[in-house]
Amino acid sequence: MKVPVGFVAKLWGFISFLPFFILLLSLGILKGLIIGPVVVVIMVVGNSSVAIGLWLAHIFWTYYCVVKTKRLGWVLKILILMLLPLPLVLWPVIAIVGSLIGGIGFGFFAPLIATFEVIGTDHKDKFFHCFVDGCYSTLEGSCTVVRDFTDFCFHSYFSFMDDLSEDMQEGEKPIDIRLLKLPKCLFVIPFAIIIDVPLITVVALCKSPYMLIIGWKRLLEDLIGREGPFLETVCVPFAGLAIVLWPLAVTGAVLASFVSSFGLALYSAMIVHQEDSVKFGFAYIMAVVSIFDEYTNDLLYLREGSCFPRPRYRENVKPSDRLERRNSIGNDFKNEVETSLRGSKLVSQRSKTLKQALQQYTPVQVWDWLFKSCEVNGRILFRDGLIDVKDIEECIVKGKCKKLGVKLPAWSILQCLLASAKSESSGLVISEEVELTRTNLPRDKIFEWFIGPLLIMKEQIKGLQLSENEEMCLRKLVMRYKNERPEDWDDTGFPSNDHVRRAQIQAIIRRLQGIVGSMSRMPTFRRKFKNLVKVLYLEALQAGIIATQNGGNLNRKLSGQGSVGKMFSKHLPATQEEKLQNAEVSEDVV
C-alpha cells in the first residue's frame, strides 16, 4: 500500500482510521461479553469435574509410583513424599482457578480477535462475517480445551508416572541428594524467598511504567507514520488492538515476574547442593536479582548492567563464561522485542525485521506438517501390511494408542531425516519448497527441545550414509521391532552385519522414539492422532483392505465420523506464507 507522506496526509490517515477501528472494537467487545460467560461455564464445569473426579486416583498413583521407582534415591524419595501433600491438595483449586481465568480470557478475546481477522480474509460478505466469526468457533474451542485437559489428566499424567516407575537401564544411576547437604539447602530457602521474591517483584513494578510508556510511544509513532506493524492495511486493526491491550501485556509481564521469582529463589537450594556451600547459596540470592535487573534493562533498551551487586556463586565458572552467556541472553531478548518495540533509531531495520518475522514458522504449522506426514505414511504402511488392524482397533475402541502413536510418527520423522541427510540443507527438508532451519524454526522452547536433537540426528544419519536397502529395511524394523539391542536385528534381514553400525542406527531410532513418546503425551497430540487413525481406518475400509465383516464395532464406533476424514484429507492452499502448514507432503520426502 502507499504510505502517506507529510504531516497532513499522516494526520488524515490517522483520523480516518479511528472510526473504523472503534466500530470493530465495539463489535468485538459485544461478542466477547455474550460468548464469554458461556465459555467460562463450559471450561470451569468441565475441567473442574475432571480434576475432582480423578483427584483420588492421582493421589494414589502418584504415591505408588514415587515409592516404586528406582530412579530416585531414598533421601530424595522421602523428601518428595513429605512435600507431595501440598501440590496434591492444591491441584483441584489450581485447576478450577486456572479454568476460570483461562475461560474469561479465551471467551472474551477470541471473538474480539476473530472480528479483526475478518478484515484480512477474502470473504465476499465481510460485514456479515464480522458479526458471526468467532462465536461458534470459540464455543467449539472451549469444548476442545476440556477434551485436551481430560486427555492430560487421564492419559498423559499416568504415562509420565509410568515412565517414572519403570526399571532403569544398565549403567543408569538414581537421582539423589546427599543427606548431609539437605539441612544447608533447607536453611537457604527461606532467606531466598524473603529476599528474592520482594526484590524481583519491586524491580518488575518499577520497570513496568517504562515498559508501558515506551511501548505506547513506539506503537503510536508507527500508527501516525504508518510504519512497522501499521505498514500493511491488514495489520492496522491488529496494531490498533495492540495499543489498547498493551496495559494488559504489561500487567501480565509483572505477574509473570512475580511467579517466576519463586522458582528463581528456590534454585538457590540447588546451588548449595551443587557447590556444597551456603556461602555460594547466599551469593546466588543476591546475584539473581542483578541478573533479573539486567534482563529487564536489555528488554526495555535501558542502560546496560545493573545497580545491584553480582557476587560469584559458582566455584568453577570463569568470568568470560558469564559474560558470554549474559551477552547471548541480551541478544536473544533484543531479537524477541524488536518487532513490538522499535524505536526511531531502528527505522532502517524495520522492513528487514518484519520480513524475517513473516518467514518465521509457527508451532501450529510444524504440528500440521507432522500429522499430514503421518497421514501419508499411514496409508503406505497400512497398504504394505506394516500397520496391523488390531493396532487400529486398540486405538479407536480401547483408546490404547501408545504403540501406534509412537511408531508411526517416529517413522514419518525418520523419513524426513533420511531425505534431509541426502540433501545439502542445513536443516530439515519438509517438502520441495519448505526447509526448517535454526533461523526459521518456531520461537518456542518446547519445539526447540524437540527440533534441536532432530538436527543432530540428521547429521549422524548423514555420516552413516545408509544404503537404499538399509532404508527400506528400516520401515519394518521401526514398525515391528523393539530395537533395544543389536541382536534384535539378527533375523530381520538387515543388509549390514556390522554390529557397531547396527548399534548406531538403533541408538538413533531409540532416541527418536523417545522424542516422539514425549510428544505423544501432549493432549493435542492424542486428539489429533485419534482422528488420524479414524481416517486411516475409514479409507482402508472403503478400499477393501479391511473386510466389511470385520468392521463390526468399529463401524458403529465411527458412525457420524465421516467429517473427520474430510477435515484431514482436504488440500489446503499453498500460499507463499503458509508453505509449511499447507504443503502437500510427497512420498519422496516422508
Strand and helix layout:
Layout: H1 7-53, H2 55-68, H3 74-83, H4 85-117, H5 126-132, H6 136-165, H7 182-225, H8 236-275, H9 278-299, H10 319-337, H11 350-358, H12 363-383, H13 389-398, H14 402-422, E1 428-429, E2 435-436, H15 445-464, H16 468-480, H17 499-519, H18 523-543, H19 552-557, H20 562-569, H21 579-582
Antiparallel strand pairs: 1-2
Helix pairs in contact: 1-4, 1-6, 2-6, 6-18, 7-8, 7-9, 8-9, 9-10, 12-14, 12-18, 13-18, 14-15, 14-16, 14-17, 15-17, 18-20
Any key phrases for this structure?
two-stranded antiparallel ribbon, disordered C terminus, 590 residues, 3 domains, mainly alpha
Q: Helix and strand succession?
A: HHHHHHHHHHHHHHEEHHHHHHH
Q: Runs with pLDDT <50, length 5+?
A: 228-234, 319-358, 559-590
Tell me the structural class.
mainly alpha
Query: Roughly what percent helix?
Result: over 70%
Placed side by side, the strands forming the largest sheet appear as 1-2
Q: Give the N-terminus to C-terminus distance in angstroms.
A: 40 Å
Mean pLDDT: 76
Largest sheet: 2 strands, antiparallel
Instruction: Report the strand count.
Output: 2
Task: Tally the structural domains.
Answer: 3
Rg on CA atoms, Å: 27 Å
Tell me the overall shape: globular
Tell me the strand percentage band.
under 5%
Query: How many individual helices?
Result: 21
Oligomeric status of the shown chains? single chain
